[in-house]
Amino acid sequence: MRHIFHHHHHHHRFHPGPEGRRGGGSPSRRDGESRFSERRFMRGRKLSAEGMQLLILSLIAEQPRHGYEIIRAVEELSQGLYVPSPGVIYPALSYLEDAGLAEAQTDGNRRSYSPTEAGRAHLADAQEAVEALRRAIGRAGDRFDEMRRSEGDDGRHKRPFSETRMALRAALFDLREAPPEVRERAGEILRRTVAELRGLQDKD
């Protein structure tokens, strides 16, 4: 199998394969070491660029998802170890679109993504990589969960605030290409919300 997912200048990019064709192939084994290993796709608590690309493609193949749903799916898969920001997810989705592996359907102000026929073919070709990647993320999440529980913190008291903050960031990203009047209404909502939150601070 040819190598399609590349790491380039530390960006979450999807690049053409060695033959110059878009999406030309998939990760393979080299030098006696599995190219689907945890070290390949994990960089500490973060995914490598090619790991993120492959994971996103596999998640939107399960069902069409918009950006925030992808963020939540990664968070659940890693048991809270890794919560990618919208600034990581949306550029990666754009790159997958440019590579002809993903397509978007617009629903109101949201864009829901699913793989193209070419994207599904690449996933089938990279099935071993997908399975290894998910195992790596799952193992890392298990270790994180064990450590968190041993310290007596399961994170539940922080979850509502964290989820709301992430949903807000994703919603703002979804609105970045909305018509001016929609963005103006969003700005008014944010200004009112900020004023109410500051009012809570004043009461304390």
UniProtKB/TrEMBL annotation:
InterPro entries: Tscrpt_reg_PadR_N (IPR005149), WH-like_DNA-bd_sf (IPR036388), WH_DNA-bd_sf (IPR036390). The lineage of its organism: Bacteria, Pseudomonadati, Pseudomonadota, Alphaproteobacteria, Rhodobacterales. This is PadR family transcriptional regulator. Residues 56-124 form the Transcription regulator PadR N-terminal domain. Residues 16-40 have a biased composition (Basic and acidic residues). Residues 1-15 have a biased composition (Basic residues). Residues 1-40 are annotated as: Disordered. Pfam families: PadR. It comes from Haematobacter missouriensis. SUPFAM superfamilies: Winged helix' DNA-binding domain (SSF46785). It comes from the Bacteria.
